[in-house]
């Protein structure tokens, strides 16, 4: 049975607390939800950038805490300041490289973000502890798409989190890449993951105004995540941001 949600109804799925749960339950029950992709603007570095993203229609903003590499890292005090200004139902994603539950729980409580983006692999025990300690917070697991083996990795973790985010990092390097590489990956594998799991899937990795339409059509993700593709010299570029949204709208029309 197919249920097609209007965009207004779909907007309810991106809330300020556990935005993925309603969608996930519908997917698990065998329903197909048709909607425009949700858009997350990542690497937000100031209150002004967050406001700009929200003004253009962002459904979520990404706030990057300490990472071994990559752009957009800001201090937790600033993350908390920005998160406090973002109006519901826009979600605030705390990107974390931590792999221990206690450290991640402490980060969330300091920053008050509504969603935790887990950029590295975590143990099943750690995920259970996060779920128990943070029942009102959505968990989004990053899968760094490196090859066909990423499909099995995504399937294995999908029932332990609220959503997946497919990126182009590399956890096997001496200095891990956990996001923000500006590289695309094999979208055929991403599409396989979307079809294999019963969870919402965000697509990230090298998206920009010129390729996002093709990426969205090929992968059919729940959401799209962009960082460097809408920036110039590190700053959020309003013209690129507008073009990105226009490209997504054109696909959804």
What is the topology, as strand order, of the major beta sheet? Answer: 1-2-3-4-5-6-7-8
- Write the CATH fold name: TIM Barrel
The topology string of helices and strands comes to HHEHEHEHEHEHEHEHEEEH
The CATH superfamily is known as: Aldolase class I
Percent helix, as a range, is: 25-40%
Radius of gyration: 16 Å
Summarize model confidence as the mean pLDDT: 88
Strand fraction equals 15-25%
- N-to-C terminal Cα separation, in Å? 23 Å
Task: Write the CATH architecture name.
Answer: Alpha-Beta Barrel
Whole-number count of domains: 1
By CATH reckoning, the class would read: Alpha Beta
User: Biggest sheet, in brief?
Assistant: 8 strands, parallel, barrel
Helix/sheet category: alpha/beta
Spans of at least 5 consecutive residues with low confidence: 1-34
